[in-house]
Design brief:
Mean pLDDT: 93
Structural class: mainly alpha
Oligomer: single chain
Order of helices and strands: HHH
Distance between the termini: 45 Å
Largest sheet: none
Shape: elongated
Radius of gyration: 21 Å
Length: about 70
């Protein structure tokens, strides 16, 4: 198992260190973008758009809900 993990890690590192297309800063491997997005969401919360934010605040006011920070 250790040898397999090393081989896969080597392949991924070689891929990521390959020459990048002009204008591209990075090469992502399978699942990496999703992993980074999940990490960001866990740190900062789920992003919501302006319209949803407005509707949530309207519902909080109408239902007189206390103790919610958005």
């Amino acid at each position: 198992v250790a040898e397999f993990k090393k081989t896969v890690g080597d392949i991924m590192r070689n891929l990521q260190n390959s020459t990048k297309k002009t204008g591209c800063e990075r090469i992502y491997v399978a699942g990496e973008k999703e992993f980074l997005k999940e990490k960001e969401i866990l740190k900062n919360g789920i992003p919501i758009n302006e319209a949803l934010d407005k509707n949530i605040h309207i519902m909080i006011d109408e239902l007189k809900i206390e103790g919610i920070e958005i």
